[in-house]
Amino acid sequence: MEAVSYDYLDNVVNIWRFGRKLTKHPYLAYFNIKYFAPPMIKLNFFNRAELKFAFESIGQGQLSPQELKAMYYCLDALVESVGGVLAAARNNEPVVWFDYTVPSIILNAFGVASICTSMVSKTPNYLGADCLIEHFEAAENAGVSSEICSMTRLPLGAVLMNQMPKPVALLTTAQPCDSGRTVSQMLDYLADAPSFVIDSIYDKDEESIGHYSADIMAMIEFLEKILDRKLDWDKLKTHVEELNLFNYYLREVSQMHRAIPSPGLGFIFLESSWPLRLFASGYPSATKFGKTIYDIGKQRITKDLHKRKKEEKIRVMISGAPMYFMDIYLWMQKEFHAYVVADYLVQTANPEIDTSTRESMIRGLAIDNLHLGMLRQSHGPVEFIIEDIENLIDEYSPDCLIFCGNIHCKHKKSVPKIINDTCKKTGVPTLNMSLDLFDPRANSEDTIKKQIKDFFINNGLV
Ligand code: SF4
């Protein structure tokens, strides 16, 4: 295997390692962060975007010691996963790339190092805006249109800059959108390794799930040939049982947010559970993260009810993938006592996977994947989006809805009237934003914050 450089990923893993060290003693971390937060904010993080983002990622002094403990488990799982990929690459062991739409837990059961290409979209954030822009420019210099979703352009940039360990295989799906589908082909071309594409399905009925499951089985056969080893089904069962536990805790935490006031865990949910799902599915540390936030949630909606009532003034629902290059969750909490109670990306309704047979496990993993944000809403008709909005409004009683309209989600751009009319019918005030979720060149943080502030004021929410 040819030698590769992956300095950016190395740096990100080092930042996670530092965060893990810091949060290992959560009470000490809590007081340190509280102490350093005001001067750091005042000094604008010495104008260093990476410091600002790292500080936001550990909650800017707004997380409790228990939440920092949850963060520790998350960072532990991320270090194990991505650190493991880098170590494997250095030892000339095989690495597999997969898109987030592929059930990566199967790769864990194969015992092969694997990295989620679309999750690499989040990692340049940790190194600051300049790093993000370098990734975009690398893709654009290779002729990739800026019309293509920035989430998919970022990993392409990482590959073009030789920042990703070379894979022995690439696993993708032909969904949920044109950006993902077309960028996969470019990744395939650059990876110069055999690839397997799980076919697109348009529905969620039995026939579609059967089709999806059959393709996952075919993908296992493909991997067995490439890796020259058999899938360890017992290991897969152990990992899926772990995933079941993780999903159980996250489902419970999602449901706790129906309570008024909610436990207010929106930020840590977004910051941690989405990366865990993509990078560390079935890892014990991911389950410990889930259990920790479950315990915090239970405590807050029972014993700390009085405190939460004082804290939560506005219940916010986020529809569409939330923006990633900046934090609005903590900012809304701090400025307006506005808490995100439902969010399209991390909302967990994934059902328990039946581990009794190989077939039931694969079918369960197919369904589990179809519950992931973009895949859940975007692989089929507009009804999937509408049902999601209506159900979440009904169940989570938000005071307002913020629609983070990603300019690249073309499948939503052709149906805005249907979405707008649905929001109007619910009577919940809606802010329809049009922005780029990952590209700081396209949006100003101040403009986005002003839009949200004006929306709260104009609707009498503050
Ligand atoms: S954010 Fe929209 S356009 Fe981008 S990958 Fe997801 S579904 Fe596709």
Radius of gyration over all CA atoms, rounded: 21 Å
List unreliable stretches of 5+ residues: none
Mean residue pLDDT: 89
The proportion of residues forming helix, as a percent range, comes to 55-70%
User: How would a textbook summarize the main sheet?
Assistant: 4 strands, parallel
Could you say which small molecules are bound to this protein? iron/sulfur cluster
Class per helix and strand makeup: alpha/beta
Q: In one word, what is the shape? A: globular
Question: What distance separates the N and C termini?
Answer: 59 Å
Residue share in β-strands: 5-15%
Strand arrangement across the biggest beta sheet: 2-1-3-4
Number of strands: 8
Elements, N to C (H/E): HHHHEHEHHEHEHHHHHEHEHHHEHHEH
User: Count of DSSP helices?
Assistant: 20
Topology summary:
Elements: H1 7-23, H2 26-42, H3 49-57, H4 65-90, E1 95-98, H5 105-110, E2 113-116, H6 129-141, H7 150-160, E3 169-173, H8 178-191, E4 195-198, H9 206-227, H10 233-256, H11 266-279, H12 284-302, H13 305-311, E5 314-319, H14 329-336, E6 338-343, H15 358-370, H16 373-378, H17 383-396, E7 400-406, H18 410-413, H19 416-426, E8 430-435, H20 445-458
Parallel strand pairs: 1-2, 1-3, 3-4, 5-6, 5-7, 7-8
Bound molecules: iron/sulfur cluster.
